[in-house]
Specification:
The chain is built from 18 helices and 16 strands. The protein has 491 residues and is α/β, with parallel strands linked by helices.
């Protein structure tokens, strides 16, 4: 049984991040591995609650108390089996997921210190990899059925692995020159070094999954050709249509770019795919518009590229330091101030402000941004931003990065040919079996639910794989952690 006094004897502790002056000189991950002693201590804080709400906070239904207690007792071999039972890629979620499971931890009630679930998770997979316990698990028999997966992000890869292990022939199609979706070129190496992706791809290949890169379905390969080649198709193309601000005066000036353009180029340079970036922060006054994960990624990249200064703007007021129970009662995901590692590396943050205009020189180059304080309100599901009179001020800017979210999956020949239209959230609707209105065509991940967390992408990929397996008339059942209408915990 778990240690009932563990959380009383030990406070929540995380391993120290690499020192800022050191990590700014490279693109390596910010977090070093923790010691066995620290991880066993922190895993021992888990009480194995009678009703483990962390299971509900995690859409994958990770068996968190099980592997926490296995680590507490030093059984790393069984811990990775318990972790892999629900999560194909814990090395991804352990590094990139914001951990809604921790927000739902019973120890987080009334401002308490949640178990370090995410840290324990990543240390389990780190040690499993180091000791050779992550091996291919090919199906003993083939079904003779074929599935095409369009998109190689976490949803597509999770579905591909589940289906291949069930004996189906799986081919993954990716339009980029390398596999991984946003994990490859959208996430900086200081959050996810790409060796973790490559290692999983080797495992999937050994399990029978085939990959084709440089394939833009609907453009370089017709949808009809894919439908003729496979018994079912899964679309997992993400939600890459970025929001813009075309109505802001001066938007046409040179030096204003969507955040993903900046991140993709930076990642390609780090990967050795191109010699230099055309969009660089080196020596520039940088303004990042947005307050989420993508904005923080741009901040970290700007520091490493040698920005002269960085200012990050957020339309919303400064969040509270701790959960506001009247707004976000436990175990829901709380609105609180989140400081990313990039914020301790430098730069300034301004809250409750918005850009009123971009200023430029006679040659059409960006030189400054004018901002003002704003008040944001919501009514009938619509957001209204009101400028506070007399609060305008100007900041120098040579580079502006728009990290203001995504509008959903991209329009294009793929959707048009299949007769699929985006819903009001920019996603593609499905039935209860993840199948679209086009027979034999399934959708999962951000393409279905809009830009979301990596843990939701993996969960939807696994669930869609289970439905495809049933659609193909195969024996048995695959795990299906969520249904298409599932949503995060809410009050």
């Amino acid at each position: 049984m778990p240690d009932p006094n563990g959380f009383l004897r030990h406070e929540r502790r995380l391993p120290a991040r690499r020192p800022v002056p050191v990590r700014l000189r490279d693109w390596r991950e910010v977090y070093p591995s923790a010691s066995d002693e620290l991880i066993r201590e922190q895993a021992g804080r888990c009480m194995d609650c009678g009703i483990p709400f962390c299971h509900d906070g995690c859409p994958l239904g990770n068996r968190i108390p099980d592997w926490n207690d296995l680590i507490r007792t030093g059984d790393w071999d069984f811990a990775i089996e318990a972790l892999h039972a629900t999560n194909n890629f814990p090395e991804f979620t352990g590094r990139l997921c914001p951990a809604p499971c921790e927000a739902a931890c019973v120890l987080a009630i009334a401002g308490g210190q949640a178990v370090t679930i995410k840290q324990v998770e990543v240390e389990i997979i780190n040690r499993a990899v180091a000791s050779g316990r992550v091996t291919p698990r090919p199906a003993p028999e083939r079904t003779g059925k074929s599935v095409g997966v369009v998109g190689s992000g976490p949803a597509g890869l999770a579905a591909a692995q589940q289906l291949a292990r069930a004996g189906h022939d799986v081919t993954v199609y990716e339009r980029d020159d390398a596999l991984g979706g946003l994990l490859r070129y959208g996430i900086p190496d200081f959050k996810l070094e790409k060796e973790h992706i490559d290692r999983r791809l080797e495992q999937l290949r050994a399990e029978g999954v085939k990959f084709r890169t440089g394939v833009n379905v609907g453009v370089t390969v017709s949808v009809e050709e894919l439908r003729a080649s496979h018994d079912a198709l899964l679309l997992a193309c993400g939600a890459l249509a970025g929001r813009d601000t075309p109505e802001t005066p001066g938007r046409q000036l040179r030096g204003i770019h969507p955040a993903m353009e900046h991140l993709v180029e930076a990642n390609r340079v780090v990967a050795g795919k191109q010699p230099s970036a055309s969009i660089t922060a080196a020596g520039k006054h940088v303004v990042i518009i947005g307050g989420g994960d993508t904005a923080a990624d741009c901040l970290g990249v700007a520091h490493r590229q040698g920005a002269r200064s960085v200012l990050q703007l957020d339309q919303y007021p400064v969040p509270p330091q701790e959960r506001d129970e009247s707004r976000d009662p436990w175990p829901t995901w709380p609105w609180i101030l989140r400081n990313y590692p990039a914020h301790e590396e430098g730069g300034e943050r301004a809250f409750a402000v918005a850009v009123t205009s971009f200023e430029g020189d006679a040659d059409g180059n960006l030189t400054a941004v004018r901002i003002a304080e704003v008040q944001v309100s919501r009514a009938d599901g619509r957001r209204t931003v009101t400028v506070v009179e007399g609060t305008e001020r100007e900041y120098p800017a040579d580079l502006v990065l728009l990290a203001i979210g995504f509008e959903g999956t991209e329009e294009g020949p793929l959707l048009t040919t299949l007769g699929l239209t985006r819903n009001r959230r920019g996603g593609i609707d499905t039935g209860s079996d993840w199948q679209t209105s086009a027979p034999g065509i399934f959708v999962a991940g951000d393409m279905h639910r809009g830009a979301s967390l990596i843990v939701w992408a993996i969960a939807e990929g696994r669930a869609a794989a289970a439905s495809i397996h049933a659609y193909l008339g195969s024996d048995g059942h695959l795990p299906s952690p969520v249904d298409p209408s599932a949503a995060a915990l809410s009050a």
